[in-house]
Amino acid sequence: MLSIFRQYTFDDSFEQVFISSKFLKEYQIALTFATDYDQNNLPTSGIFRVNWDTTKVTPESITHFKKQHPEVNIKVYISIGNRGTTFPFSPQNNKSWILNATKSLTNIIKNNKDYNLQVDGIDVLYENIEASPVDFVECIGQLIKNLKENGVIKEASISPSFALNNDFYFLLYRAYSNQIDWVDYQFQNEVVPVFAPNKLVELYDELVLEFYPRKKLFAGYSAENEDWATLSPIVFFLGGMNILKKRKGPGISIHYHNYYQQNSNNE
Description:
By secondary structure, the chain is α/β, with parallel strands linked by helices. The chain is built from 6 helices and 9 strands, in the order βββαβαβαβαβαβαβ.
């Protein structure tokens, strides 16, 4: 069973994770987050800035990590958005948002030597959307398309959850399925708690049946203590292993708790 593992992190805690080529074919570092809000938390209409710890996540730390694990394909993603209600997706003008987002993320990924992290892709993880589904689909879809066509990124993923899946993320996927490589569904945001591994597997199968192809669908999880009431570590571990082994899911992801005790280092 060779799978993909994604770690959402704001720092270099990926260096502490055990990696074995016996189980993994790919390890994705998803940096949290790039947000289109300024240092006063005001919206910037698509001008993204970095919120991860740039003193710990450096070109040198990424290069060193890759050299330590030559047998596993290491990829770096920039996750745009945020968890919770802060920094919602809220463009004032679609055209200017797309233009600004394309330019600012290109600068972060390609043109800034401090952030030269050999980025492979972006992940879209907005848990709060203050826009219409049409605007969300247009802005995010065109941003991904622009970055790919300009050679800025090679891959893109979206990270839906229960409340936003039907009206936002699935519409985005349906319109831009050829541009979206992975779907990292966040199971910790289910309305009804998931108390049994077989229930997690059942929910995963329903997503495959109704929304996303199995070959692209990750099972996502949060190790935040406040999320355990919805999905505990043991339930996710047992259910996730079933998804990987028996359901042939491509991978899983985990949010580690250190990020959410940290304010932006750029504030």
